[in-house]
Amino acid sequence: MPPSPSTRFIDSDTTFFSGVKSDSEPGQIPLGYYWMGINTLNIGGSISCRPGYRCVVTLPDGNLQGSFKFVPQQGLEQAIVVVDGKVYVADWPFLSFRQLPGLQFSPFAKQIYWVQTIQSAERRGTGPAPAITLIPPKGVIFMQDGGSTAPAFYDGSNFGHLTGDQYGVPAGGDMAWVGDRMWVSVDQQLFASDISNPFSFRETSYLGGQVSFFFRSDITALVVTPSTESPQLMVFTEINGSIIQANIRERSLWTTTPNFQEEVIGVGCLSARSAVAHYGRLVWFSPQGVAFYDPALSGKITTRLPVRDNEMLVSKSVLSDDLSQVAVGIFGQFLMISVPAEDNFNRHTWVLNHASLTTLADDSGPSWAGYWIGTRPVEWFYGQIANTERIFFSSVDYDGKNRLWEAFIPDRLDNKCPITWGVLTRGYFGATAAIQEKPPGTRCRLSWVDLGFTGIEEDTNVGVFYAGGTRGAFRQMMDKLISVDKGSLAH
Asked: What's the CA gap between 234 and 223, in Å, rounded?
């Protein structure tokens, strides 16, 4: 007997710990997923509004080419931004930027490449056997614009372009600091500085050894592998990734070390700003999408790696052709990947929770929380800033102004203003298997929706809309203001 018209079928989700899954038709999404979240965060299966943004300062107008955090040996951190090739620096709390006179990169460069190093030795003399003197360690940041201009340095007080033969620092692109050496990419070549002295690339003239390393195509990104014992250097091109055993400090051993330079994966990287180490794995944006690689557990994978972002297909399907400026930020267990969706700038920021449902014994692994909108991040910088974990980004905003923002503000307000956020669930077409069976072909009509809220701290406008499973636009079925007092217990 077919069910009577009064028969009720209940379909529900009590947790969303699996996160976003927009690569399937909503009616085919399993329990525990939702189709997409916009300006949302997913922690422990509960969906909430994302943390807020706070505008720190408005930056100079022009071509915003990047932002970076400088950590001096003593004192608090500094923020560095480059606009139209001009370099600006601000002391914590980053409210007032000053220009470093005399530093000028190409105003047309897409981006500035950065690396922070530690200098603890310097070379005296230019002969075949110069004296090497130990000095108190000091932090030095190096900057490049891709080779159009001579490299520049800044150590908190001194700065300048490195011109002439006394330094020999190659003018190139992405850089990394590992094994007490600065590694610089120049087209298809990779150069290494003298040990403990990033200002000098003259070691081979008096100690011998490998001058540079060649790769099959231009180097697109350098990233240090996440190992506390022997960190190495991953070198990406657009078509592959290779390991350099940069933990071997003695240059004369490089030519005799088996597989000192070795291709390990056949998946390339498109953006230097996208390659990071997070939760023990390398993460980067490949030509196919977001890729993960665990150097400790994975063997040599020369065919391909599965992409990890198909769940974000609704945003991924509208990406720009130019993905060279995809930018990644890290805040605790969260990974933010800013991508040019429906825009030439990074309009969408995909958010990955690397520990969606952590328990005493295990965790559920990563899940996508959705994408954030409202700003267009150019480059993120993050870490311990003023003795607290913080994350900042520079942005080319919709009004054309360049700004520096701080993210993950706990009040969940953007500059004290409410944030519009929303969730698109999976399709609800009757009973879930865990509750009751629905005979095939049974026609259902949506009668009611039950929502649960917790932890509401501000007045919240809630709208609920539904769309039919086969046709029709969204229709509103609830419009309600939930009003709360500060400090009250809201339900």
From this structure: 5
The two tokens of residue 469 are 């499973």
pTM above threshold 0.90: yes
Query: Which residues, other chains included, contact 76 with Cβ-Cβ below 8 Å and sequence gap of 6+?
Result: 91, 92, 385, 386
Q: Give me the residue label for tokens 């295990």.
A: 362
3-state secondary structure (DSSP) of residue 219: strand
> 189-194 long-range contacts, Cβ below 8 Å, gap at least 24?
189/213, 189/214, 189/215, 189/219, 190/214, 190/215, 190/219, 190/222, 190/235, 190/244, 192/246, 192/251, 193/169, 194/121, 194/123
With tokens 């200098």, the residue in question is 119
d(CA 239, CA 304): 10
Token pair belonging to 2: 């077919």
Q: Do residues 382 and 330 touch, judged by C-beta distance below 8 A?
A: yes
Structure confidence by residue, pLDDT tens digits, 190-247: 999 999 999 998 877 644 456 789 999 999 999 999 876 678 999 999 999 999 999 9
**Tokens matching residue 115:** 């690396």
- Alpha-carbon distance values, 346 to 95, 268, 334 (Å): 24, 21, 18
pLDDT at 268: 95
Residue 445 token pair: 């009509």
Residue 442 — pLDDT band, cuts 50, 70, 90?
low
Q: Say which DSSP state 194 is in.
A: B
CA–CA separation, 439 and 286 (whole Å) = 45
For 262, list phi and psi in degrees, rounded to 5. Answer: -150, 130
Cα 49 from Cα 72, distance rounded (Å): 36
Phi then psi for residue 273, to 5 deg, are: -75, -10
Bond prior to 93 in cis (omega within 30° of 0)? yes
Side chain identity, residue 357? L
Q: Where are the beta strands (DSSP E) in 31-70?
A: 33-34, 36-38, 40-43, 46-49, 52-58, 64-70
Q: What is the pLDDT of residue 295?
A: 80
Q: What is the CA radius of gyration of the chain?
A: 26
Residues in the chain: 491
Task: Rounding to the nearest 10 degrees, give the CA dihedral for residues 102, 105, 111, 116.
Answer: -50
Q: How far apart are CA 451 and CA 85, in angstroms?
A: 52
Closest alpha carbon to 107 in 90, 80, 81, 82: 82
How remote is the C-alpha of 470 from its chain's centroid?
Answer: 38
What is residue 319's DSSP assignment? B
Cβ-contact 421, 53 below 8 angstroms: no
- DSSP string spanning 250-318? -GGGGGGSTTSEEEEES---S-GGG-EEETTEEEEE-SSSEEEE-TTT---B-S----S-GGGHHHHTT
Task: Measure CA 120 to chain center.
Answer: 30
Give the integer Cα–Cα distance in Å for 391 and 456.
25
Task: Tell me the Ramachandran region of residue 84: left when phi exceeds 0, alpha when psi lies from -120 to 50, beta otherwise.
Answer: left
Residue 85 Rama label (left phi>0; alpha psi -120 to 50; beta): left
State the Cα–Cα distance between residues 412 and 50, nearest whole angstrom.
6
